[in-house]
Amino acid sequence: MRDRMGKILIIEDEEKIARFVELELEFEGYEVDKAFDGRSGLELAKTCSFDLVLLDIMLPGLNGIEVLRRIRQFSDVPVILLTARDAVVDKVTGLDTGADDYITKPFAIEELLARIRAALRNKAGGNEMKTPPVLVAGALRLDPMKREVRVNDNLVDLTKREFDLLQYLLENKNIVLDRGTLLERVWGYSFSGGTNAVDVYIRYLRAKIEEPFEVKLIHTVRGVGYVIRDE
Question: Helical H runs in the chain?
Answer without folding.
Answer: 15-28, 38-47, 64-71, 88-97, 109-125, 160-171, 179-182, 196-205
